[in-house]
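Q: Hi! Curious about what Large ribosomal subunit protein uL22c looks like structurally. Here's the sequence.
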Amino acid sequence: MIKKTQGTEIRALARHIGMSAQKARRVIDQIRGCSYEQTLMILELMPYRACYPIFKLVYSAAANASHNRGLKEADLFISKAEVNEGVIVKRLKPQARGRSYPIKRPTCHITIVLSERPNFTLKNI
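A: Let's find out. The predicted structure is below.
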């Protein structure tokens, strides 16, 4: 009989990242389901500005998994990754003739869930 051991999930959350959710989703869609080591390589080689905060978040989640739960980083993969819209920071830019122009700076919240690859073991009956 084959018994599947229950995987452990490690969750990391970054809030109020100063970029639009659409730009962060472009990167997150590329790494969803990849292994931890493959994810780091993808994020280092992609030319987008959103890669750096996502790289830091994935690295932090793996460090939490190894330190707090004692998991090996080589066994981790990204089981869930999502980007939600955050608050919109509103500023006013002065314009000519005493007018002002609104500047809207979007933010986003990024959630990364790392899981351990399931191990299959043979159980004696």
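A: A fun detail: The longest helix spans residues 51-69.
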